[in-house]
Amino acid sequence: MDKTVNNKAWFLVLPVLVVVAFSAVIPLMTVVNYSVNDTFGNNDFFWAGLEWFEEAVTSDRIHAALGRQILFSSIILAIEVPLGIYIALNMPKQGVWSSLCLVLMALPLLIPFNVVGTIWQIFGRGDIGLLGHTLAAVGIDYNYTNDPLDAWATIIVMDVWHWTSLVALLCYAGLQSIPNAFYQAAKIDQASRWKVFRYIELPKMQGVLLIAVLLRFMDSFMIYTEPFVVTGGGPGNSTTFLSIDLVKQAVGQFDLGPAAAFSIMYFLVILLVSWVFYTVMTNLEKAEGK
Amino acid sequence: MRLRGSALVMVLYILFLLVPIYWLLNMSLKTNTEITSTFTLFPANLTFQNYVVILTDPSWYMGYVNSIIYVVLNTVISITVALPAAYAFSRYSFMGDKHLFFWLLTNRMSPPAVFALPFFQLYSSIGLFDTHIAVALAHCLFNVPLAVWILEGFMRGVPKEIDETAYIDGYSFPRFFIRIFMPLVASGIGVAAFFCFMFSWVELLLSRTLTSVNAKPIAAVMTRTVSASGMDWGVLAAAGVLTIIPGALVIWFVRNYIAKGFALGRV
């Protein structure tokens, strides 16, 4: 749709601007302020320049947390995106079953984050949890509170449980928008199942898939509550992701300066990656609009 | 044959989703002795005692009331400010619109962990700490951009000729917007409200940081009780089950729009 040029539209945007400025810009400026100052309490602040940034850039602890974070987000995307597509392809197309599937699949998305954590914490326990108990019964030595590998496996399965439906629902919506004529044409051409997927379904899902990847990347990169409830960042530091590390530092130890410098860089990383996605997405929309 | 294969995949996947939830429900209907001493797939002595504990103790059930108050406040604020903005983005191009749109989206991307401490200090200094409105405003950080995005997607689908016809018929802008335009995007408003509700409901980090007693959300009440009273598994599980119910109820009404909402109105 071609839009009219009208700068008075700013008045319509103004309320949003005020609300978001209050809840985003002011806090963000506080963070910027902390990041360049040092404090010994009593609200006395001293100029510290870029000291905290240097500290954060060279900190081994943060490097390790960043490494774990990237690994986690990559594993999550590598499992959830293909699985989500696969589930979407197998969903019933219409009728009662399709509604039922939609509702049941959306259920995990609506559970408060810490309840998700609680569910899996209980589910994985060897003494009272179904999963832990069953694994112990078949003779697999599984203990997510002691073994880093088990802790990782638990958190990844939990995230797959929690968010795969999101990818599947998005892909499903993309698939629904393909007219039946496309499939009939493919049938006449005797296209194989794979070719139908590769040349009809996948291109049609491109737009929603990008949104799915963007959302999953953002949310997995700032994941806090679920792993915190299940493992508390442990055993040791093996599941301490960026957000957990940050909250430990800011609220736990009250190291405002380093925590603020760390937050700003954390935010910038997310911003950068999301900007790339966003640009690709809008270009895609433009290309489709032609 | 292919249909059977699909059905099998779906049954397996939905089982995978439901088994952990079933386990929580199962535990909430057991006594603590049964949970810790024996391992049973079904509650042997069905008990609703855990639910009774929650529904009769104000420190528990007020958690639900608090959560619902700030979630509703947040939904109302988000939708009210997002409606005109989404209209502006879908109809007009103006100076800096693309940058503004992306800037809004960045707020959806910002990690709540970054904002927890500044929010705490901001709301403490203006005397709003531990009030429902503080949490509602804090959640606007990610819900307002989301609402703008979703509504903009839906509004794009409404042909512009309708606006023009209304003006020719002598409607003023506010009257046109409320009487004609809002009914046309009613489903979009519903979906946006649902998503605001949902993200405000599931968020814990900010709502926990900004409250202590009077506005404490149920999710935070749960964490506190777990650490304080040893492990009261039955009550914990019952509280968990009760937090799932509101989501399960509202989802039925928007089931056909869920995907469109998640795609930010862009399917």
UniProtKB/TrEMBL annotation, chain A:
Keyword Transmembrane: yes
Regions crossing the membrane: 12-36, 70-89, 101-123, 151-175, 196-218, 259-280
Superkingdom, taxonomy of origin: Bacteria
InterPro entries membership: MetI-like (IPR000515), MetI-like_sf (IPR035906), Sugar_ABC_transporter (IPR052730)
Gene Ontology CC entries for this record: plasma membrane
Membrane topology summary: Multi-pass membrane protein
Protein location: Cell membrane
PROSITE patterns: ABC_TM1
Domain named ABC transmembrane type-1: residues: 66-277
Family in the record: Belongs to the binding-protein-dependent transport system permease family.
PANTHER family: GLUCOSE IMPORT SYSTEM PERMEASE PROTEIN GLCT, TREHALOSE TRANSPORT SYSTEM PERMEASE PROTEIN SUGA
Protein name: Sugar ABC transporter permease
Species of origin: Fuscibacter oryzae
TrEMBL record, chain B:
Transmembrane segments: 7-25, 68-89, 101-120, 132-155, 176-202, 233-254
Subcellular location: Cell membrane
Keyword match RNA-binding: no
Pfam family, one: BPD_transp_1
Domain ABC transmembrane type-1, residue spans: 64-254
Annotated SUPFAM superfamilies: MetI-like
Membrane topology of the entry: Multi-pass membrane protein
Cellular component aspect of the GO annotation: plasma membrane
PANTHER family: ABC TRANSPORTER PERMEASE PROTEIN, MALTOSE TRANSPORT SYSTEM PERMEASE-RELATED
Assigned protein family: Belongs to the binding-protein-dependent transport system permease family.
Name of the protein: Carbohydrate ABC transporter permease
Organism (species): Fuscibacter oryzae
Lineage of the species this protein comes from: Bacteria, Pseudomonadati, Pseudomonadota, Alphaproteobacteria, Rhodobacterales
